Amino acid sequence: YLGVMPAYSASDDALTTKLVTFYEHLKDSSVPSHQATVLLFDPSNGTLKAVMDGSVITAKRTAAVSAIATKLLMPPVSEVLCILGAGVQAYSHYDIFTELFTFKEVRIWNRTRERAVQFAGAARGPVRVCSSAQEAVTGADVIVTVTMATAPILFGDWVKPGAHINAVGASRPDWRELDDELMKNSVLFVDSREAALTESGDVILSGAEIFAELGEVLKGTKPALPEKTTVFKSLGMAVEDTVAAKFVYDAWSAGN
């Protein structure tokens, strides 16, 4: 799969496109499934200003958006963080979530236990490796799903009422991470309605109703409802790469 994600932000005076490749089930696990490059242009004349490692930008901006959603939607008292998956996005989410929030316990589960143990060993704080997804999820206040699952691995009857879920994997219309019960009995937030209704199997196949885009909550036109069980379905938007790339370029320029 090769994706091209162009975007322009007038407010940031930034024009970019991201080229991202996705290879499913690689035998060589040392190569990431997703690889990306971001090209930053001068919006006034189209000159190429920079070529950036899009994989780093993708990992950081995706986790940052999940953190914004979590800040708005998580229960007022949140003590347990659960991460399902142990890939690149698990690391970036762990880093920003433990920097911004204070959790008493962090749990990790991965289909391959070896990678979960490796993740726990690399973490800057204590992480409990769980033997099953259900064990990891039970009683958790904030759940992050960052897996390559094509069928549900998170079920509604496991989830603590009032918990917040960031659903980051399953970015195809026939792939799932969350079951119907969880999707239909939670308040559903998305980054983009248009994208969710064409790309997210969790949304399309469950028939769950989208309550709001995250931007609507940030603007104050829709309430956050942190007292409810909430799901934020993240698919990623090109403008997130644009803003992040411009931020990196400006910081680099200032230092030079």
Automatic annotation (TrEMBL):
* Cellular component annotations (GO), alphabetically ordered: cytoplasm
Recorded superkingdom = Eukaryota
Coiled-coil ranges per the record? none
Q: Could you tell me the Gene Ontology terms of the biological process aspect for this record?
A: thyroid hormone metabolic process
Select a single GO molecular function from the record's annotations and give it.
Answer: thyroid hormone binding
Family membership: Belongs to the ornithine cyclodeaminase/mu-crystallin family.
| Subunit-level organization | Homodimer. Binds the thyroid hormone triiodothyronine (T3); T3 binding inhibits enzymatic activity.
- This protein is called what? Ketimine reductase mu-crystallin
* Species whose genome carries this gene: Cisticola juncidis
Record lineage: Eukaryota, Metazoa, Chordata, Craniata, Vertebrata
- What gene, per UniProt, encodes this protein? Crym
